[in-house]
Design a protein that fits this description.
By secondary structure, the chain is mainly beta. It has a 16-stranded antiparallel beta barrel. Strand 13 and strand 14 form a beta hairpin. The chain starts with a helix and ends in a 6-residue tail after the last strand.
């Protein structure tokens, strides 16, 4: 009986050892560290991105015209934006819930009472199964009246998002303008931070910052075409964007966006702009 027990123990150990050796090693792709963009051949912007060594969270971004720093305190992310040739920083506070940003507030100095700061813009984000669905906006402005220092106005669902098949299909700003998106069959790599939020110009750095990972699930596929129009003139495209990509393995290393602008009330193009992007991935999170 003891021989059977010993044999069973040996076989169990061997089986566990084999299973352990058979487990595939999961390697996380490198994170993006540099983005450069040209517009019609001339420099448009560049961005150098740094990460915290402990957890891989984004810590600093140095762009052509600003330095952005991030500090993480519990469920709060503090963002400090210092633009070139400006001494005062813009302070932004993000509140997160289960890893997504649910509220953002932007604090500025009161021009009438320089010793005071106030929240000029406050945004509240609403999600459905980790998909961003709408944004509420509260705007506050200062007054010179010492007894009534601030005015306030709130717009619910100022931004609305529609998702289909895991991709953002439509972005609507109030009841005024709509951006429509079409997608390629290629899956968007997880480490490619291109993210379309509340924008009608998907060419700026704000669409590429890896900080956008905090706004819920990104698109499943690579966007191929986008165009927007005013709701009152739905048959008239205001601007159109086409997207192409180049890559190496699991990394997208290049991207081109062609922008076409159209005249109001006509379908005539007023010209095109070509944006060419290059991406470098030099932060290893493993």
């Amino acid at each position: 009986m003891k021989k059977y027990i010993l044999l069973f123990t040996v076989l169990s150990v061997l089986t566990m050892s084999c299973n352990k050796n058979d487990d595939p090693e999961i390697t996380i792709p490198n994170k993006i560290t540099k983005i450069t963009c040209t517009k019609n051949g001339a420099t448009y912007f560049s961005a150098d991105i740094s990460y915290n060594a402990i957890d891989g969270s984004i810590s600093r971004v140095v762009t052509t015209d600003a330095t952005i720093r991030y500090e993480y305190i519990g469920s709060t992310i503090l963002e400090s934006i210092t633009r070139n040739f400006e001494s005062a920083a813009i302070n932004v506070t993000h509140t997160t819930t289960q890893g997504v940003i649910t509220e953002t507030s932007e604090d500025v100095e009161n021009p009438y009472y320089p010793s005071e700061t106030y929240t000029e813009n406050q945004y509240t984000y609403h999600y459905e199964r980790s998909l961003l669905k709408s944004i509420d906006w509260m705007y506050t402005w200062p007054k010179q009246d010492a007894n009534d220092k601030y005015g306030e106005d709130t717009t619910e669902s100022i931004d609305q998002f529609t998702w289909e098949n895991g991709n953002l299909s439509q972005y609507k700003r109030l009841a005024q303008s709509i951006m429509e998106y079409e997608y390629k069959t290629e899956v968007q790599p997880e480490n490619f931070p291109f993210r379309l939020l509340n924008t009608f110009t998907p060419v700026e750095f704000e669409n590429f910052t890896p900080f956008n990972v905090y706004f819920g699930i990104n698109n499943r596929n690579l966007v191929g075409r986008a165009y927007w129009y005013h709701i009152t003139t739905a048959n008239q495209i205001a601007a159109e964007y086409t997207f192409s990509y180049t890559g190496m393995g699991e990394y997208i290393t290049g991207m081109t966006i062609v922008e076409s602008i159209y005249e109001t009330n006509t379908n005539n193009s007023t010209g095109t702009n070509t944006y060419v992007y290059t991406f470098e991935y030099n932060y290893n999170p493993n």
